[in-house]
Fold this sequence. Notes:
Elements: H1 2-18, H2 23-30, H3 34-41, H4 49-59, H5 75-88, H6 91-105
Amino acid sequence: MDNIYTEFGKRFKELREANRMTQDQLAECIGVEARQISRIETGKCFTTLDNLKKISSIFNVEIKDMFNFSHFKEKNELIKMVTIMLENASEEDCRKIFKIIKELLY
């Protein structure tokens, strides 16, 4: 169970930072102490369903999306996942993806 707390904490922090909020600001919006936000982000604790609803509203995401941790996987596993996706993509989509990757990396 600790692993899901850690993964959720990473995702929680990622969403908070993407929304340019400090721990203090988010804590105030939710109605908890700032140290509670820190404890959630480090995986030391979790939060309530009511707070999950508030957080999803603040971040403008569905609750289920707060549990999307797939991008936290190790590099080798990500490469395998991308390879599988590319193998299942059309030739046209593969060309588009190649252009995007080329722009991002070079």
